[in-house]
Specification:
The complex is a heterodimer of chains A (about 325) and B (about 425). Chain A is an all-alpha fold. Chain A folds into 2 domains: about 45 residues, no CATH class; about 240 residues, MetI-like fold (Orthogonal Bundle), CATH 1.10.3720. Chain A is about 70% helix and about 5% strand. Chain A is built from 15 helices and 2 strands. Chain A has a two-stranded antiparallel ribbon. In chain A, a hairpin with a 2-residue loop joins strand 1 and strand 2. In chain A, helix 4 runs antiparallel to helix 12. The longest helix of chain A is centred in the first third of the chain and has 32 residues. The radius of gyration of chain A is 25 Å and the shape is flat. Chain B has about 425 residues and is an alpha/beta fold. Chain B is built from 18 helices and 12 strands. In chain B, helix 9 crosses helix 10 and helix 17 packs antiparallel against helix 18. Chain B folds into 2 domains: about 190 residues, D-Maltodextrin-Binding Protein, domain 2; about 200 residues, D-Maltodextrin-Binding Protein, domain 2, CATH 3.40.190. The chains are: A mainly alpha (about 325), B alpha/beta (about 425). At the A-B interface, helix 1, helix 2 and helix 14 of A face helix 1, helix 3, helix 9, helix 11 and helix 17 of B.
Chain lengths: ~325, ~425
């Protein structure tokens, strides 16, 4: 009886799979990619994080020693603080600014709105390599565009990327305006699209009740944009915590030999950059894997908190 | 039931993925007639003169010439086209995965890491007496470790001073520049020249982080004592004085703002005539590419000697190393290819600024009166003579240097005084080196 049931069950399962074969096929491709390029490296990195490392691969099991090593390293804590500051300011700045810009653009005529959307999104279309190098050039302390403009209004000169007190802020500013994922370009497009989906009768009712422009924005627009804002904040935070490319491009020496990316004096070293340095320069792959695990844990916890704190169902 | 189906699918895919990783880890035995080569193009075109030359042209032409004598052998060429550290990352990953190429580009600063890990095959048995006499002695010295030669020298590198002579001429200060045959000068002569050429339109000198600590070593003390990389020896009053002198140049407006940090852009400003002198690993080809009218006369000279030091250049040699091969026959084949690619025969017609590793190639270029860079050859030979492998050659060379550079930057940003930065570095570095 049991055998018969199992056989019937298997046939039913087989039929179900066959019936939904196209669905499974479409799911299979991303699933395999996920397993090969995400899950498998994650499993291996977890193993590396508790191993010593030689040039030929992982060595002996060392327990939590690699984790202890990063927690003892003052550069790790500096990188962690830089990463948190970077995430908070870039995500907050980008989302906040895109809300304000979108609100300003919303009442404009369609043509004007399209022009501004294109203008804000254009830097996001360009390669981050090109954008970073152009900003790096504009930030040059002598003969750079920004110091030239500063001189016209009688301030500066600023060191920008060559000054420890300004370097991280300089990269944050570039990212807010130009990052293809978390910059204002993409955010403005999404926020404007969300604004367009808010029923106009809500505004009309509010106007009848005597609500002004600011009150309507604060009481209607912002709350109803919450799903979009939550999406932007979560995606932005994850991206910000993984930031590497712009740091590498904007702070590494162009002389071809120097190792001083993430500077000056660690002022722009993020956790992702710290992980790269440990893995490929210090050749401490176990320590780098431990740092990557810590980064993953932080991103996971922050994303869960954000999701739980901000995500609510919206009904019009 | 749907959940169960999904679970079954995932349960099947996880071991499949792990199994896939296992089979793609160590690569199966190579086809004996295919040689994989990872190299780094140093000029475009075959000779370097072709206006439409491409990065791999010379390598393809040279490999074709060699392959004509070795029918049935295929050579796959990959241009690394990156900085040394990116190349290192690629190699480390390939070694761990067991799929390093047969012939790889290396330099004096990191080959020993792979030699000591048993990744490379020594070349001594294939190096002829003629080769030993023809390669620059410095290059053979820098490509050796543990009494063996580990790679075939291809180009001679040097982090030296590049000078825009036209700016000095315009300032009436050309006579302040160093003279042939050795092109050396003292710190005071260098500072006098830098100040003489500084104007509202141009800075006297600009240096990156690696330029700063190379110049500091010309004051007499070095990162490591000669031949001993068990502890760092740079934390001295002499070096503190050197860094303070360099910082002085940034404070009085002689040095380009941002000098001493990684983010400073020296090359572009030098090419635009906004800096008279910069440290550089090679900018002559870029000067020649400038439009007519923007090109300028240049000099390549060693860094000036400090009160207790000697003029020097951070020298190096890049070349081709053969990785361990499965058989003696195959090793001989790959060695033969490496030998040919670094030979006079293969390189004699190159007319780019190629910084040759052989006396015979330098002689051929000197004899060619039409050679665009002929005037630079005496300077090249002069600075190569005073080159040192500044960052060391041991397995901890890079890990130590990544501690040094941020602290050197901290001196120039004003975050740490030189004495404190050097003390911190000494403690960090000696911990890495296991020194007391």
């Amino acid at each position: 009886m049991t055998e018969t049931n199992t056989a019937t069950g298997d046939r039913t399962l087989g039929r179900r799979i066959w019936r939904a074969r196209w669905a499974y096929l479409f799911v299979l491709v991303p699933a395999v990619l996920f397993l090969v390029f995400e899950l498998y490296p994650f499993i291996r990195a977890t193993g590396y994080s508790v191993s010593s490392w030689t040039i030929r691969g992982p060595g002996e099991f060392v327990g939590l020693e690699n984790y202890a090593a990063i927690f003892r390293d003052r550069i790790f804590w500096k990188a962690l603080m830089n990463t948190i500051a970077y995430a908070v300011i870039v995500v907050g700045g980008s989302v906040g600014l895109s809300l304000v810009l979108s609100a300003a653009m919303y009442p404009l005529a369609t043509r004007a709105k399209s022009f501004f959307k294109m203008a804000f999104y254009l830097p996001a279309v360009a390669s981050i390599v090109v954008v970073a190098l152009v900003w790096r050039w504009m930030y040059q302390p002598a003969f750079g565009l920004f110091n030239h403009l500063a001189a016209i209004i009688g301030i500066g000169p600023f060191g920008f990327l060559t000054d420890t007190s300004q370097s991280l802020a300089s990269i944050m500013l570039m990212q807010i305006f130009s990052n293809p994922t978390i910059g204002i370009g993409a955010s403005v497009i999404l926020v404007l699209a969300a604004m367009n989906s808010i029923p106009t009768h809500l505004y009309e009712a509010a106007m009848l009740d005597g609500a002004g422009t600011v009150a309507r924005f604060r009481r209607i627009t912002v709350p109803l944009l919450r799903p979009t804002v939550v999406f932007l904040v979560i995606i932005g935070t994850v991206e910000a915590f993984r930031e590497f490319t712009a740091i590498y491009l904007m702070t590494s020496s162009s002389s071809g030999q120097a190792l001083s990316g993430g500077g000056p004096f660690y002022s722009t070293t993020t956790l992702a950059y710290y992980t790269y340095v440990q893995a490929f320069l210090a050749r401490q792959v176990g320590v780098a894997s431990a740092a990557a695990m810590v980064l993953l844990a932080i991103v996971f916890v922050v994303a869960v908190i954000q999701f739980r704190r901000f995500n609510t169902e919206i009904e019009y | 039931m749907r959940r169960r189906t999904l679970r079954l699918l995932i349960a099947g895919l996880i071991p499949a993925t792990i199994a896939l990783g296992a089979v793609t880890g160590p690569v199966a035995a190579q086809d004996p007639q295919t040689i994989r080569m990872w190299t780094w193009s140093q000029w475009n075109g075959v000779t370097g003169l072709e206006p439409d030359g491409q990065p791999l042209d010379w390598w393809r032409a040279a490999v074709d010439a060699w392959a004509a004598e070795h029918p049935g052998v295929t050579v796959e060429i990959e241009d690394l086209n990156g900085q040394d550290l990116d190349i290192n990352a690629k190699y480390d990953t390939a070694v761990a995965a067991g799929n390093i190429a047969d012939l790889i580009w290396v330099d004096e600063s990191y080959f020993s890491k792979y030699a000591s890990a048993d990744v490379l095959a020594p070349i001594d048995a294939y190096l002829t007496e003629e080769d030993r006499a023809d390669f620059l002695a410095k290059n053979l010295e820098l490509s050796a470790a543990d009494g063996k030669q580990w790679f075939w020298p291809y180009i001679t590198q040097g982090n030296h001073l590049a000078i825009n002579v036209d700016l000095f001429r315009a300032a009436g200060a050309e006579d302040l520049l160093p003279k042939a045959p050795d092109y050396t000068w003292t710190w005071d002569e260098f500072v006098a020249a830098a100040k003489a050429v500084t104007s509202p339109e141009a800075f006297g000198v600009g240096f990156s982080t690696d330029g700063a600590y190379t110049m500091a070593e010309a004051w007499g003390d070095h990162l490591y004592a000669q031949g001993d990389e068990s502890k760092v020896t740079i934390n001295t009053q002499n070096t503190v004085d050197a860094f303070e002198a360099l910082i002085g140049l940034t404070k009085d407006g002689t040095a380009f703002p941002g000098s001493g940090t990684g983010a400073v852009d020296l090359a572009t400003n030098f090419l635009q005539g906004r800096i008279a002198m910069i440290n550089s690993w090679g900018i002559i080809n870029d000067i020649e590419k400038l439009p007519e009218g923007e090109r300028f006369d240049a000099m390549l000279v060693p860094f000036p000697s400090g009160p207790n030091g000697e003029p020097l250049v951070w020298g190096g040699v890049h070349g081709l190393a053969v990785t361990k091969q499965p058989s003696a026959e195959r090793e001989a084949l790959v060695m033969d290819l490496a030998h040919y690619l670094t030979s006079f025969e293969a390189l004699k017609d190159v007319r780019a600024w190629s910084k040759p590793a052989r006396h015979s190639i330098i002689a051929a270029q000197e004899a060619d009166e039409s050679y665009l860079f002929r005037d630079f050859l005496p300077m090249f030979e002069a600075y190569t003579n005073v080159a040192i492998p500044l960052m060391g050659q041991g397995p901890n060379a890079v890990p130590v240097l990544i501690k040094y550079e941020p602290l050197v930057e901290a001196m120039f940003t004003g975050d740490l005084p030189p004495a404190e930065a050097l003390a911190l570095f000494e403690a960090d570095a000696n911990m890495i080196l296991g020194a007391p």
